[in-house]
Design goal:
about 150 residues; alpha+beta; four-stranded antiparallel sheet; 5 helices; 4 strands; about 40% helix
């Protein structure tokens, strides 16, 4: 029962910080619950696909720069925090690169692909629970017109 309560408490906190995911900018409650229910000692890798906006769009205008700028500039502000935070919490990037094209299957249109790996689920969650990462996340949301993140075991 205590483990379930811990999951529900963390779930409420994460949804409170990042939103309900209905806009595709963050995980939904069901996606958070699935992540929180993974074995805590199991390695996890995330494959991120990002399509950047031509112009960044900030929901909270207080976070927007004085002069409107590109989605790329907003994403760079996010990356300036997320990349060192990944290292700090013990995760690492296997790849961060421009998307070129599909090879097999339906064509997709993305700008950036980032593959990050974590020793375990708790390490991944510590990224999302980091205050600096949380503060930088609105830049990711402002930068991305759409995104897709795939979870892989290992």
């Amino acid at each position: 029962m205590n483990a379930n309560r811990n999951i529900e408490d963390r779930l409420a906190q994460l949804v409170g910080w990042y939103g309900d995911g209905a806009d595709g900018a963050s995980p939904t409650a069901a996606q958070w619950r699935k992540m929180l229910s993974r074995p805590t000692d199991s390695p996890v890798t995330l494959i991120n696909f990002f399509k950047l906006r031509d112009q960044a769009h900030y929901e909270n205008e207080a976070l927007a720069p004085a002069v409107p700028d590109s989605g790329k500039a907003a994403f760079d502000r996010y990356a300036a925090v997320s990349m060192p935070t990944m290292k700090k919490i013990g995760g690492r990037f296997l790849l961060v690169a421009p998307f070129e094209s599909g090879f097999i299957g339906a064509d997709e249109d993305w700008d950036i692909v980032a593959i990050g790996t974590f020793a375990n689920t708790d390490t991944l969650l510590s990224l999302w629970e980091d205050a600096g990462y949380h503060a930088a996340y609105p830049h990711r949301t402002a930068a991305c017109g759409r995104q897709k993140v795939v979870v892989c075991a290992g």
